[in-house]
Specification:
Strand content: under 5%
Structural class: mainly alpha
Distance between the termini: 46 Å
Radius of gyration: 21 Å
Shape: globular
Number of domains: 1
Low-confidence stretches: 1-7
Mean pLDDT: 94
Length: about 375
């Protein structure tokens, strides 16, 4: 294990931020808090799950505005040491048991006889958001790493939301074609979210199979062989669905599939936000310029960056895909979002308002 040198300690502000990352697991605690509130009769059991939505899309945007921005980057001379600290890796791996706990809580709640349809829908939406914020986001961090354990855990988390193809398409498809017309996950200027979503989801699913077929063909293996990793992830998703049905009946199955849909739709909405209107230039030889920190939106609002383990430093992530979350850098000259992801997701749901806010920023950036 590589540890920070005793003679070169990070500044106090960075050390404090190191332990602040534990707060990202708060996302997994919110459903349990909502459940506890209902047990204390402070709120009805059918209203309780909506606390989750209020937290992510009400409390977080307000706190983002109050706490402000964070431009703190890891000291260059300590980047290698900090990248190798197992502390940061262990935090992300903790997400696996947390997410199983969150899903079990949701399953037990929707199957309660006292829960009405409004409560069941609330739990599907609430847990779906947690799955998107926690499971998919951490999976996104893990699938880029060299460690087999981390990549497996990334795939395992994606299996909990029936979106295992993301592990293949995101790394081998999206990162190659990002910010070009060849990537449906990179939204065009003036493209609405509702035009973008079905195309992005369909592409993610189908292109993952194409990419696996290409990989296996090069190895002279059949796409139907067990070497196709998509069988692993979708097979696990099928297993979770069957277990949900056996333990909790049709309501359990509906919950598992419902929260999965909410989670991967949220993922694609964030994809829309992360690349909207940005394009790489095509060179004279027909190839696109290299990906840099100018080809994804950056957002340096402190709280959301902690809760999403620096996903908002997306411009640096695309420039250096294997760079670990704790050393992703803020670039002042990257295109900057005017707010954190929670606010931008709500804004994207209203296309006229989205264009009114974002298009002038893009126009000014390219000028």
């Amino acid at each position: 294990m590589s540890e920070t040198s005793l003679t070169q300690r990070p500044p106090l502000t960075f050390t404090l931020k190191k332990y602040a990352y534990t707060l990202f697991l708060v996302s997994g605690a919110i459903p349990f808090i909502a459940y506890a509130v209902s047990l204390l009769d402070l709120i009805s059991v059918n209203t309780a799950p909506y606390i989750i939505l209020l937290f992510f899309f009400g409390v977080i945007p307000v706190l983002d505005a109050l706490l402000g921005r964070d431009s703190l980057n890891a000291p260059q001379e300590l980047t290698k040491d900090i990248s190798g600290e197992y502390y940061y890796q262990r935090l992300t791996l903790l997400t696996v048991p947390v997410m199983f706990g969150v899903l079990i809580l949701g399953l037990t709640q929707v199957s309660q006889s006292t829960i009405e349809l409004s409560g069941q829908v609330g739990w599907i939406l609430g847990i779906g958001v947690v799955s998107g914020v926690l499971a998919i986001n951490v999976a996104h961090e893990l699938i880029h790493k060299d460690s087999k354990l981390e990549r497996f855990c990334g795939g395992l988390l994606l299996s909990l939301v029936c979106y295992g193809g993301f592990k293949v398409e995101h790394v081998r498809g999206h990162h190659v074609n990002v910010s070009t017309p060849e990537d449906p996950s990179s939204a065009d200027y003036n493209q609405t979210l509702y035009h973008f979503l079905p195309r992005a989801i369909w592409h993610n699913i189908t292109n993952a199979w194409k990419l696996e077929s290409i990989r296996l063909t090069r190895k002279e293996k059949s796409v139907w062989s067990l070497d196709n990793e998509l069988f692993t992830w979708y097979g696990l998703s099928t297993l979770w669905a069957i277990l949900s049905f056996i333990a909790f009946g049709w309501l359990g199955l509906a919950f598992f599939l419902g929260q999965s849909i909410v989670a991967f739709v949220l993922l694609e909405i964030i994809n829309y936000v992360e690349h909207y209107g940005l394009r790489r230039k095509k060179r004279d030889n027909g190839k696109y310029e290299y990906v840099t920190h100018h080809h994804s939106w950056n957002s340096n609002f402190f709280l959301t960056n902690i809760l999403l383990i620096h996903l908002q430093r997306h411009s640096d992530h695309h420039a250096f895909p294997k760079r670990r979350y704790q050393v992703l850098r803020h670039h002042e000259d990257s295109p900057q979002l005017p707010a954190g992801y929670a606010t931008m997701v709500l804004l994207a749901l209203v296309p006229p308002l989205w264009k009114k806010v974002m298009n002038p920023i893009i126009d000014k950036y390219y000028k």
